[in-house]
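Support reply, case 0932

Customer input (verbatim):
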Amino acid sequence: MKKLEVVIAPFRLNELCNTLEKYGAKNIIFSEVIDLKKEKNKIFRGAKAELAFLKKIKIEFHINDDKISKCVKSIDEIALLD
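Our regenerated output:
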């Protein structure tokens, strides 16, 4: 059994939970985290803004060794959808 950690945008949470349930993830913990994104030449309300704080969700869980590669592949597909 291995521990995995995933940081995703909040609107992807339901889809990720369904995937984790499908692969039998255990001990699932959710945390709200803030991602610091540096942006150059971004103007907000007339002032230059060089930092942006983005709310994300961090999910920590345990999964069996034989399901890791399939689970990671599914998580990659969810996280990279536009």
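We compared this against your earlier run and they match. Two observations from our side: The two ends are 31 Å apart (CA to CA). Strands lie at 2-8, 26-44, 47-63. Please reopen the case if you see a mismatch on your end.
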